[in-house]
Amino acid sequence: MRVLVTGGAGFIGSHVVEALVGRGDDVVVLDALLPDVHPRGLPAMPDGVRLVHGDVRDRSAVAAVLSTVDAVCHQAAMVGLGVDVQDLPAYAGCNDLGTAVLLAAMATAGIRRLVLASSMVVYGEGRYRCAEHGLVSPGPRRPAELAEGLFEPPCPACGRPLRPGLTPEEAVPDPRNGYAVTKLAQEQLATCWARSTDGVVAALRYHNVYGPRMPRDTPYAGVASLFRSALARGEAPRVYEDGGQRRDFIHVRDVAAANLAALDWTGLAAPSTSRPFNVGAGTPRTVGELAAGLAAAAGGPAPVVTGQYRLGDVRHVTADSARARAELGWAAAVPFDAGLAEFARAPLRGPAAYPNRSPQRR
């Protein structure tokens, strides 16, 4: 198979490229190679990979690379929650305009298979159950309560404590920050494209991805990278809230394997299909556990729990990945402890300062 990987020089994209090459696929990479993300210049690519320096928002660049491929893995995106509302134009421009340009060009080129890098952030809060009211959706987090250290969302009907659980794909989306809104919009744009072109989309809702080549020292990075960057500087990881936030940490090689499984699924599915898949390890861990495990594996200082918070964060969201197991034949294979031990010693990309809030490639 000949596959285009957008953002293929970045964190997740580079692992997808390696996995594709490893199984014998022909790969073309389209990446903007922004200097804030790639400060050392052109990244190394596996033998036989064609690297094209171009932006997904550039119609001519996208059209040129699509003329040689059979399918697309769309990884290029600006990631993270953002710093403030001034980031919204960059997020919408890179994620949504870039996806729209790509989809339009795919329609013209007659390419009908797409694997889209989506995110668990489209859910907002995860799935919660109240002992009296069953499944419920907590309302927005309140600054006054967070400031008092009241981090657990109460039942919106009775105010009682809730029990968090695994979130399936049919959960109603509730994006709670600008990045999350753009990721949901990407899925909707892809669904529109599939219906109009008889295309097939597998939207992979990545949970908290970690592993080698994460970006270093950037406010846009995920929590695993922030902790790892602090340890590389000899500093203690700083944990927000009380560290009890539940997440599903998934190793980047498992994410790459999910992309390959989704490419194979798109070849078998009926046309005009757009289907989301959770990509998570299936074992909830707390942010505090992640920080403590990384610090221990790196031989660094113990984490500091700060009690600070960000309104764009959610308390608990973890994956029900049963659909991916059943339909894609995929399951996470890297154990959490082994993955952390590797990540604690693996080099990071960077430093990346993002002085102009430029889009970050995955």
Secondary structure layout:
Blueprint: E1 2-6, H1 11-22, E2 26-31, E3 50-53, H2 59-66, E4 71-74, H3 88-109, E5 113-119, E6 127-130, E7 134-136, H4 143-147, E8 163-167, H5 178-197, E9 200-206, E10 208-210, H6 223-232, E11 238-239, E12 246-247, E13 249-251, H7 252-268, E14 273-279, E15 285-286, H8 287-298, E16 304-305, E17 318-319, H9 322-328, H10 336-345
Parallel strand pairs: 1-2, 1-4, 2-3, 4-5, 5-9, 8-17, 9-14, 10-13, 11-16
Antiparallel strand pairs: 6-7, 6-8, 12-15
Helix pairs in contact: 1-7, 2-3, 3-5, 6-8, 8-10
Keywords:
10 helices; alpha/beta; 4-stranded mixed sheet; 7-stranded parallel sheet; globular
Short description:
With 362 residues, the protein is α/β, with parallel strands linked by helices. 34% of the residues lie in helices and 19% in strands.
